[in-house]
Amino acid sequence: MPDPLERLAALQAGDLPVHGGRTLAYVYDSGDPEIDRVAREAVAAYAASNALDPTAFPSLLQMENELVGFACGLLDAPDGAVGTVTSGGTESILLAVQGARDSRPDVRHPRMVLPATAHAAFHKAAHYFGVEAVLVPVGPDFRADAAAMADAIDDDTVLVVASAPSYAHGVVDPVTEIAAAAAARGVRCHVDACIGGWVLPYAARIGRAVPPWTFAVEGVTSISVDTHKYAYAPKGTSLLLHRDAGLRRPQFFASAAWPGYTMLNATTQSTRSGGPIAGTWAVVEHIGDEGYLELTDQALAAVDAIVACIEWEPGLRVVVPPDSTLVTLATDETLDPFTLTDELVARGWYVQPQLSFGDQGPSIHLSVSAGTLPHVQEFASALSESVAAAREAGPVAVDAGVVAFIEALDPAALGDDDFDGLLAASGLVGASADGELELPTRMAEVNAMLDVASPAMREALLVAFLDRLQRPSL
């Protein structure tokens, strides 16, 4: 029999590296191997434990309460604040929306007011829970327009949202004004601090200018903060904090309407592995308050250095000065952003392309961690080489016939034949001998094709693509 661990290592060899500070999306690297060791051992020790029943696994309950207590101290929570450990930022956001909806059973058609830059998880929540998402355009600085958001609140509004910071641009919304407008109408205000929650408090202590956004702001009723991001904990944990227990109560689910045990859940999950909880608790205990202060200093130093690299390169610009650890860059007409992304990936730096949205052209996103700081000079060299190569290659053009093909498709009725026709027309993606989907090694042409599609068509194409990927080989 083949050794499954050997096969596992072989499979993982094709993945992006999670250490080394060069993967600037999806993972968050402290740069400290000892933190990783502590996390691995804690996860392994609790991999079979189940947080479904806190009376059966009281150690997990204690760890959850201690994590919430640590976060409450970070985020200026008042006495009586409560929180829940979830599986990630999306679940925290889903629960914030579900709880807001269920707190207002009198509202038949619930709505939530979002800046256009709010995370897509809020749209997922709208889809799942039947809460209408009311999108409000942001200002030229990419921050929410507080006055416009206040005007959008009506009698059916159950939640108003702000970001600290927004994912796409890395800036903090004017939470003070937004929360005040929500409070004046008796509406909940949620701050999505999944990215900034474990960074911005330390940034303020270091002396960085940080706009108010925590529970110190009157009217903020809940905050989501991801521990598997800048707390440098293992993947899958986040925290959803509420100003008081009454605000959290609608989030809970209980059912005795069957002959088994009475189901009682604080999250959307029932069974929850104790591994991520224990791994997160162990990492937070290991790093501690002063350790996070140092890691934040390192991450922000890396941000400053990367911004300087971008500003030094002709043809590049930072879209907006970052408030936290997220950097967004754009190119001028002499550089194709998707080709630049490919060139950086080819040199070992994974950055994330962002497609055009509204009147804003495509951009490139970087999530910078403490582990990136020792490698900034390597990034600077790779960026210069990539800019030169992208400029020499020239812009990516989508064939007019492919554009016409895309425009003729109905995203609501996209089927397998349509998808196959697009693959054939574009010549970008082919099928292997065994019928599996194959991607090109460079993605610029794929991203350029998606960029000319409408948002609805992008969604339909990517759903079709995911459906095709997730089919077993028989």
Q: How would you describe what is shown here?
A:
Helix content is 42%, strand content 13%. The protein has a seven-stranded mixed beta sheet, sandwiched between helices. A four-stranded antiparallel beta sheet has the order 10-11-13-12, covered by helices on one side. Among the domains are: 252 residues, Aspartate Aminotransferase, domain 2, CATH 3.40.640.10; 70 residues, no CATH class. By secondary structure, the protein is α/β, with parallel strands linked by helices.
Q: Indicate the percent of residues in helices.
A: 40-55%
- Class by alpha and beta content: alpha/beta
| Poorly predicted tracts of residues | none
Identify the strand order in the major beta sheet: 1-7-6-5-4-2-3
- The tally of helices reads 16
CATH class of the domain at 33-284: Alpha Beta
Major β-sheet profile: 7 strands, mixed
CATH superfamily of the domain at 33-284: Type I PLP-dependent aspartate aminotransferase-like (Major domain)
User: Taking all residues together, what is the mean pLDDT?
Assistant: 94
Q: What is the terminal-to-terminal distance?
A: 20 Å
Bulk shape: globular
Based on DSSP secondary structure assignment, what is the total number of beta strands? 15
Beta fraction of the residues?
A: 5-15%
Instruction: State the CATH architecture of the domain at 33-284.
Output: 3-Layer(aba) Sandwich
The CATH topology label of the domain at 33-284 is Aspartate Aminotransferase, domain 2
Gyration radius, rounded: 23 Å
InterPro entries: GrpII_AminoAcid_Decarb, PyrdxlP-dep_de-COase, PyrdxlP-dep_Trfase, PyrdxlP-dep_Trfase_major, PyrdxlP-dep_Trfase_small
Organism: Nocardioides zhouii
Modified residues (N6-(pyridoxal phosphate)lysine): 229
GO molecular function: aromatic-L-amino-acid decarboxylase activity; pyridoxal phosphate binding; transaminase activity
